[in-house]
Amino acid sequence: MKLAYKILYCHGLGSSTTNRTAQFLTKYFAGTGNHVELLNYRNPGSHTKPWRISEWREDIENRIKHDEWILIASSAGAHCAINAAISRSKHVKGLFLFSPGSALDLRYIETVQPGAKKTLENGGSIIHPASRNGHEALVDLVGLKQFMETCASRREGPIPIDCPISILHGDKDPLVPHQNSIRLAEKFSSPDVELKIVPGGSHFLEMTPETIAFFERFLARFSVAENERVAAKI
What we know:
Blueprint: E1 6-10, H1 20-29, E2 36-38, H2 53-63, E3 69-74, H3 76-87, E4 92-98, H4 107-112, H5 116-121, E5 125-128, E6 137-140, H6 141-149, E7 165-170, H7 178-187, E8 193-198, H8 209-233
Parallel strand pairs: 1-2, 1-3, 3-4, 4-7, 7-8
Antiparallel strand pairs: 5-6
Keywords: Hydrolase
Organism: Mesorhabditis spiculigera
GO molecular function: hydrolase activity, hydrolyzing O-glycosyl compounds
């Protein structure tokens, strides 16, 4: 498999660089000669420092300010990857999003921890639980509102990203309704957006033969792009 770009994976809130998706990517690209990097956020989750989506976005922007990259991101990581793709459009040549945390409101935190909304609105904070091998994270109302208000889906008009985009979302996701991804896919200005809703899929999607085939269809776009680039030089 030949790709023209570096690949950066950005995990979601409560997760880590050792999650199932990160492990899949590491194994999938092993020995292919492609550069795969699992982003280490400055604050992936802490019991003392409140989580801020703006820091995650800056971490992505700083990492991709040189060269050309394909961004692969999950959940809240997809939120900041989309914004980074807007601000670093010359450096982002593709987006693959797992269960993107798009268009969420305070009801989200209630699905994570019942009663959390009232705690946050009263000036308190909560510890966002970790998924398998993940990081627990201190969350307050300031951070959660920043997450909601800076979501690219809230922009007026199209989301100005023109590279190929693929979105994978389960129709049984209890944290982010899959309808959010349907609306998100419609907002991108890119003419090359593909969305797959996985029947029975939860928020943490398994890499099955079906989802791997969808991922490989995304990657094939860049093999074609590279072949076209080489042909243009001949």
